[in-house]
Structure formats: structure tokens, C-alpha cells
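Re: that backbone. C-alpha cells:
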């Protein structure tokens, strides 16, 4: 039959296709570029790229297009070769590693009740690639950055349930109107902050159904600023 190839046909076309490795490498190749922009470079719809990022296996022709758009070899993208190698210049094996920083992600949920932020001894559960140029433009140091999961709807529409949050752990000085991850009363929350003239701190939710929480000076000894939220990864 004609039309779209099945997953088994796609696997046979690409040989030893490693779907798990393909997903990891596609995310690495896209990096901090928006999915919409990458889809446009490929001539695909955004929904199709999101389908592949959700675990669907592309056919040979579409995988080749994505490899060209990402500047990597089809063999590497398909998981057939272990090294990172651009399609156009096989001599520059470290190009992607030089261009992208791998930011560690932890299985920590913010706004979900009691919890601890990962310590230096804990191992990340995943890593996501971000272009070093973008990090420098934002004034961010990759060594200070961690990724965690949001939980709940208190910061809707800015932050949705299960969004990925990038936190700059070096930025712990509160500035009005910005979003921080804070540990308060043994809870980890992501909130906007407002410092008041009487030294109280107000924690604000973007979802108006949640009332502001005011922390008195005597409560601040139990408050720890984990860092500023500098990036939000959204699914649609």
C-alpha cells in the first residue's frame, strides 16, 4: 500500500535504528532552538516534529531531512554511530559538543509538597542540550543551571503542569516580579515575589484563583531561595 511508511518499514530502512537514542539525539540536535523554527527549517509541520519528539520513528526520507537541518549525519541521528559528527564536515567531530551545553535534569517536582532540591551528590535523571551561544546571550553559566519539573496549576498560564523549568542557582537575590524556586516550610514552590516595605515577602501565583501568601520577617528563617527561573519548556 502507498502513503506513510509503518514504523517497522522505517526501522528496516535505517538499519540498526535505536529509537531511544534517536529521540535523545534529535533533542540534542534541536537544542534550545524552538520546535517551530526547527520544523520550518525541515519544511515540516510543528506537530510532526513534536510527534517524533514523543517517540514516533520517522521514515528514511524525513530522518534525512532532519539530519540536514540539524547539521548532523543521518547515521549519527539514527543511532548507528557513537560519535557526534556534522553531516557537512566529518573532520569536525566535536562541533556539536562545542556548540551545545548539556544541562542536568532532576526528578524533582516543584509545587508538589514536601521535597528536597538535588544536592551535589545526586545524579541527574536526564540531560537537555542548550546552545552555549544562547546561554552566553542570557548571561547564564551552565555550571549554575539545573532542570526540574513543575507540578500543579498555581502558575498558569505562565507555567503549566509538567513543564520543565531551568533554574539559575547562582541568582538567589530576590527581585520584584520575577519567578523563583523557593523552599518554604519544607515545600518547594515556584512563585513570583514582591518585597514589601515592612520587610514582608509576598509570594504571588499567576493563577488568580490562588491567593497571595505573605511571609513575615520571623518566617523568613525557614525560607531558602533555590534560584531564579530563567527558562520554561512547554508542551502543547
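Recovered sequence:
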Amino acid at each position: 500500500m502507498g502513503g506513510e511508511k509503518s514504523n517497522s518499514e522505517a526501522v528496516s530502512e535505517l538499519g540498526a535504528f535505536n529509537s531511544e537514542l534517536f529521540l535523545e539525539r534529535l533533542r540534542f540536535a534541536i537544542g534550545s532552538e524552538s520546535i517551530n523554527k526547527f520544523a520550518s527549517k525541515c519544511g515540516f509541520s510543528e506537530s510532526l516534529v513534536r510527534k517524533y519528539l514523543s517517540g514516533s520513528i520517522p521514515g528514511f526520507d524525513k530522518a534525512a531531512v532532519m539530519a540536514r537541518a540539524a547539521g548532523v549525519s543521518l547515521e549519527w541521528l539514527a543511532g548507528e554511530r557513537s560519535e557526534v559528527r556534522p553531516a557537512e564536515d566529518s573532520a569536525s567531530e566535536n562541533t556539536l559538543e562545542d556548540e551545545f551545553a548539556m544541562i542536568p535534569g532532576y526528578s524533582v517536582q516543584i509545587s508538589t509538597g514536601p521535597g528536597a532540591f538535588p544536592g551535589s551528590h545526586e545524579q541527574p535523571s536526564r540531560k537537555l542540550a542548550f546552545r552555549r551561544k544562547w546561554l552566553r546571550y542570557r548571561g547564564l553559566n551552565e555550571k549554575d543551571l539545573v532542570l526540574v519539573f513543575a507540578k500543579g496549576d498555581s502558575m498558569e498560564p505562565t507555567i503549566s503542569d509538567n513543564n520543565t523549568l531551568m533554574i539559575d542557582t547562582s541568582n538567589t537575590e530576590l527581585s520584584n516580579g520575577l519567578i523563583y524556586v523557593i523552599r518554604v516550610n519544607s515545600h518547594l514552590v515556584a512563585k513570583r515575589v514582591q518585597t514589601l516595605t515592612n520587610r514582608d515577602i509576598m509570594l504571588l501565583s499567576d493563577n488568580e484563583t490562588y491567593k497571595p501568601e505573605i511571609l513575615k520577617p520571623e518566617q523568613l528563617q525557614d525560607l531558602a531561595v533555590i534560584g531564579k527561573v530563567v527558562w520554561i519548556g512547554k508542551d502543547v
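DSSP finds eight helices and nine strands in the chain. The first strand starts at residue 100 and ends at 110.
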